[in-house]
Amino acid sequence: MSKILVAMSGGVDSSVAAALLNDQGHELVGITLKLYENEDIGVCSEGRTCCSLTDVEDARRVAAKIGFRHAVFSYTAEFRQDVIGRFTSEYVAGRTPNPCIDCNRFIKFPRLLQRARLLGMDSIATGHYAIIEYDNSSGRWLLKKAKDKSKDQTYVLYALTQDELAHTFFPLGKILKHEVRQQAEQRGLVNARKPDSQDICFVPDGDYAGFLEQVMGAKASDGDFIDSKGSVIGRHKGHYRYTIGQRKGLGIGFGEPRYVISKNAADNTVTLGNKDELYSSGLVVNEVNWISIGQPTQPLSITVKTRYHQPEAPAALYPNEDGSVHVRFENPQPSAAPGQAAVFYDGDTVVGGGIIDSTTD
Asked: Which CATH architecture has domain 3-187?
């Protein structure tokens, strides 16, 4: 049996994950990460924000009921720099970051594993929906889709390293979400019916532009809407207020649907086009993390996901000498925003993933 440091958010998933590991006889210590103060994100009351006192108390009560120690560790400075700071700078630069991926990449898994080792523990565990397996033939740890495909979280976990995968448990990977709720009810856990968290934890109302301006001090400047030929067709209220693929809320009518097809922070323009112009044939992807294989030298046939809830698309992957890859879709796909993640799959197995630098025709 292992000594496992269990990340406990106060939600039902991490609580049931801990309970299942306890059933298996592992020695557990629960840990809740304090990632920010409400004042840091412009929230004055507890409400339904992550890292609230209610979440901490729920995690502590679950740990006490199951029978293991619980502690709270603060990573507010690191979270502000590596997650909130990156979120802000990327949006202001005209890109679209995924802070959940950054949190997993820079905070949760490396910091948890570091803390576990300092405490003399073997591994960490979370309530994520994914499966980790060891492949004897390749000698690599694999990340695979969860049994519950509607809850699968491999897209936000693609940055996990081999060391992190080798020392991580995902107890919910082979369980359906409704079974997790049933387990919590049967065990009498205080958070059995607690709603799942939604949206970005540090932007609880979903108003990203408001957060950037009111909390982080970003300044929106009016600029030009242009068409794909560069002609000015209207005025916008700041490029980071718009996302690739957006159709509604443009604040201007054209008599036919227009979509945001690109943004340019340098000249503060937002390009609009028709639906056909929204599609692209490929991507250039940087900062690639390979999981099931090492750095490839030959083209690969894969499927690619460019948004969390978007279906995968068949594609060919061409590695570049600088470590980036060029993805060519079998059929044109709705344009993905630079800054988002592209994750590569072979069936249920994550091959790797990285950050979209640009789209290609």
From this structure: 3-Layer(aba) Sandwich (3.40)
